[in-house]
Amino acid sequence: MALITVIGASGRQGMAQVRQALEAGYKVRAISRQADPFAGAKIEGIEDIEVRPMDLYDTATFKPALEGSDYIFYTHPLQARADRAVLVGDVGKCAAELGVKRVVWNTSSWIPDKPGDAFTYAGNTAGINALWRSGAPGTVFGSVLFMDNLLTNWARPFIVNEGRYVYPHAPHLEANWISLDDVAKFMLTSLERPDMEGAWLNIGGPRRMRGPEVAEVLSDTLGKPVKYDPCTPQEFGDYLVSAAGDDMPAEMREEFAAGIAAFYEYNNTAPTKPFSVEMEHVYERFPELEGELEDMSEWAPKQDWGESNFRPAFG
Which of 8, 37, 48, 232 lies most in the core, judged by the most C-beta atoms within 10 Å? Predict the structure, then answer.
C-alpha cells in the first residue's frame, strides 16, 4: 500500500486530501506541527494516520518528516504566498533526494496560461519552475476557487446569520467554483497518469457562476433567502485578517489585508479571467473525471452549515 504524505494536513485543503486518499486505499501521513491536527474532524480511518512535524522554513526538518513517502501532496500556507516558489522548490529538492515518486502541488489559485499581467499569480509560474528544477517528478494543479470557502469564518456567518452572501466578486465576474474533495480527486487521479509527470493544469468545477447564482444555490440549500451582497476588496481583506485571529501576528495584518484587497481588485478587472476555467480542455486531459465533479447545488446540501463544523485557522 503506497504512502501519501500530506503537507498542511490540518487545513481544509489538506483534510480533503487526507479524506480522499484514505477512501482511495492509500496509507496517509499527515504533516503538521499540531499534535492532533484533526481534532473535531470526521474522517473515516483517521486513527490509522501517522502525524509528523515539519517546519517549511527549516529544511533540516524535511527528511525526518518525509522519508518513506511514495508521494507528497503539497499546499502552501495562505500566509506564505510570497514565498511559494522557494518553499515548493525546497520540498522538491528533499523529495528528489528521498526518491519520492511524485510531488503533487495544489497552488490554490490560477496558473497564468495566457499573455498579459499575471499580478501575484506569477508566483505560481515561478514555483512550477522551481519544482521542475528541483529534480523531483512533479504535477501541479491550479485550483481557481473553492466552494469550501463559503464555510469559513469569513463567509459562513454572513450567509447563515444575516442571509447575505458577502464576497468581493464584481457582478460580472464568473468563477468555476470547485470543491476541495474534487481538487483532491484530481491530485489522486494524476498519480496513475505518467503523462501528468512534469505537467500542470488549471482546474475548476463543472459550472461557471456569477454572484447571484451562488446566492440562489445558498438560498435553496438553507431554505431561506440569501442575498448576493458583494463587499469591497478592502473589506474582504479585513474580514480575512479578523478570521485569522491570533494565528496571524499583529505586524503582518495590515500588509496581508492590503495584499488581499489588491488581489481581488485585479481579479475583478483582469482580462486574464483567473477564476474561469475552460472545462472542455480539463475533461480532455482527465476524461475519467467528466461527470464526476460536484456542482455547487450538489455540494452545498451535503455540508454542515452549523456552528459545530470543524474549522481550522482561516476557516
Answer: 8
Q: Is 43 helix (H, G, I), strand (E, B) or coil?
A: coil
Q: Where are the domains of the chain?
A: 3-146+178-207+272-294
d(CA 243, CA 101): 37
Binned at pLDDT 50, 70 and 90, residue 310 comes out as: low
Count of other CB atoms within 10 angstroms of residue 269: 10
- Whole-model pTM? 0.94
Categorize the per-residue pLDDT at 315 as very low, low, confident or very high, splitting at 50, 70 and 90.
low
Q: How many helices (H) and strands (E) does the chain have?
A: 11, 9
CA distance 159 to 151: 9
Mean pLDDT of the chain: 93
Give 168's contacts (C-beta < 8 A, 6+ positions apart).
230, 231, 232, 233, 235, 236, 264, 267, 268
Report CA torsion sign: 258, 259, 263, 269: positive
Which homologous superfamily is 3-146+178-207+272-294 in?
NAD(P)-binding Rossmann-like Domain (3.40.50.720)
